[in-house]
Amino acid sequence: MDSSMQAVIEVRDLDLGYKDYDVMRNLSFSVNKGDIFIVMGVNGCGKSTLLKSLIGLKEPVKGKVLYSGKSFWDEDEIGQHNIMRRFGVLYQGGALWSSLTVGENVALPLQLYTKLSSQQIQEVVALKLSLVGLEGYEDFFPSGISGGMRKRASLARAIALDPDIIFFDEPSSGLDPINARKLDDLILELRDGLGATVVVITHELASIFAVGNNSVFLDAESKTMIATGDPKVLLANSKDPRVIQFLTRGPDCKESKQ
Amino acid sequence: MLIVKRCGVDTLLLVSLISLLVGMILAFVGSIQLKMFGAQIFIAYIVGIAMVRVLSAVMTGIIMSGRIGASFAAEIGMMQANEEIDALKTLGVSPVEFLVIPRILAVVIMMPILTIYADLMGILGGFVISVGMLHLNPIEYLNRTQAAVKLSYVWVGLIHSFVFGVIVAVAGCLRGIKCERNASGVGIATTSAVVTGITGIVIATAIITFICQILGV
C-alpha cells in the first residue's frame, strides 16, 4: 500500500445513539495519513456525536473505530490513553480551562506528558502561541480575549504535544470571514508543517472547499452517510440532490421563482 | 491554594457573623428559662456545649454548603457546559483527580479550622449577652465555660466538621460533574448541590448524635 494512502482512522459499521434514540447508523469510512477529512452535514445530523465517538468521549452503540489498526473501544484504559495521546482536539467554543491563563493552558499537556524543565516548557508555549499568532498572550485569562483568540489559543494547546491527528469541531463558527480564512490557512500549515492528519467537523462551505481533500456527508433524514470523497469532486459529480443542495447552499431563490 | 483561600479566608466573615449571632441567640433563649430558677450562670454551659459539640459545625457546614458547595457545582457545571471537562478527558486527565479531589481536600482541611473558629465566636456571642445584658460575672462565665467544654466535645465537633466537609464538597462536585450542558442545567446543579449538602448535614448530624449517645460521649 502507498504510504500516503495509509489509513490512520478507520470507521467500520458504526452506529451512534443516545439511550433509545438512534443518531447515525452504518458509518464506514477511512481517513488516510495527511488527509484533511471533512465531516459535513446539516445541523443536528450527528456530526458532533461522531466526533465524540472518534475522540473517545462517547462509546458507539455498535461498530469499531480503528486508529492505525487498533480498535479504540476494544482497548483497555491504558491502550485508549495511549491512542488519545496521539490526538489534539480543537473544541467548538475553544474549551480553554477558564481558571488557567492562556500560557498555563498550553503548558498543562507539556507538564503532564513531557520531562521538559519549566524554562523549556515556557519556550515551547511561546513557540506554539506564536504559531497561532498569539505571542505575548501567555498571561491573559480566556475570559480576557476574544472568541477568535480563544480558538487559536485552544489550537495552540491542541498542538502542544505535536499530535499526529488533529480534530477540529466547527472551527469557523463564530468567526468573521477573515479570521475563518486565517484558521483555514492554519489548518493547511499544520497538515503540511507537522505532517498531521486533520479531521474537521463543519458545515461552512468556504472552509470545506478551501481545505478538504476527503469527506463524508451525513444525512439527518436517513440517519446514515450518503456520500464520501473529495468535496470538490462531490460537487462536480454527485447525483444525490441532498449532497448537491448542501454543497450549493440550496436552490437559487431567483431560479426557483422562475 | 486558591480553593483553600476561598474555603477559608473568604468565608471567615460570614462564619464570624453567624456563629456570633447563634451564640447570642442561645444565651438569650437559655436565659429566659434559667432566670426562673436563678441559674443564669448555666447559660455558659448551654452555649459552650451546644456550640462546641454540634452547632458550630452545623452552622459552618450550612454556610459552606451555600457558599462553597454551590460555587463548586456552578464552576464544574460551567466547565461541563463549555467542554472544558471533555478537554481534560481527551488529554487523558481524570476530572476526578484534577477537579474533585483538590476541592474535597481544601474543604476537609478548612472545615475543622473554621469550626474551631466558630466555637470561639459562638462562645464570644454568649459572653457578650451574658455579661453585657444579663450582668453575669465575666470571670465566672469564662470559668464555667471552661468547665463545661470537655476535650471529647471538641473532638465530637471536629468529627462533625470533617464529615460535613466531605458531604459539602462531594455534593458540589458531583452535581457539577453530572450537570446538563446548558444554563438551566448549571442552575439546577447549583440548587441541587446546596439542597443535597444541607440535607446530608442534617442526616449526618442525627447519625453522629445517635452514635455518640450509644458510646456515651
| Helix/strand/pairing category of chain A | alpha/beta
Gap between N and C termini of chain B, in Å?
36 Å
Q: Which shape of chain B, going by the Cα principal axes?
A: elongated
- Main structural class of chain B: mainly alpha
What can you see in these coordinates?
The complex is a heterodimer of chains A (258) and B (217). Chain A is an alpha/beta fold. Chain A has a domain at 1-86 and 211-248: 3-Layer(aba) Sandwich (Rossmann fold). Chain A is built from ten helices and ten strands. Chain A is globular. With 217 residues, chain B is an all-alpha fold. Chain B has one domain (20-210). Chain B has helices at 2-7, 12-36, 43-81, 84-90, 95-132, 138-148, 151-177, 183-215. Chain B is elongated, with a radius of gyration of 20 Å. The model of chain B has no long low-confidence stretch (mean pLDDT 94). The interface between A and B is medium-sized, with 22 and 15 residues.
Secondary-structure map:
The complex is a heterodimer of chains A (258) and B (217).
Chain A: E1 7-18, E2 21-32, E3 36-41, H1 47-54, E4 62-67, E5 70-71, H2 77-84, E6 87-90, H3 102-113, H4 118-131, H5 147-158, E7 165-169, H6 177-194, E8 197-201, H7 205-211, E9 214-219, E10 224-228, H8 231-237, H9 241-247, H10 253-257
Parallel strand pairs in A: 3-8, 3-9, 6-7, 7-8
Antiparallel strand pairs in A: 1-2, 1-4, 4-5, 9-10
Chain B: H1 2-7, H2 12-36, H3 43-81, H4 84-90, H5 95-132, H6 138-148, H7 151-177, H8 183-215
Helix pairs in contact in B: 2-3, 2-5, 3-5, 3-6, 3-7, 3-8, 5-6, 5-7, 7-8
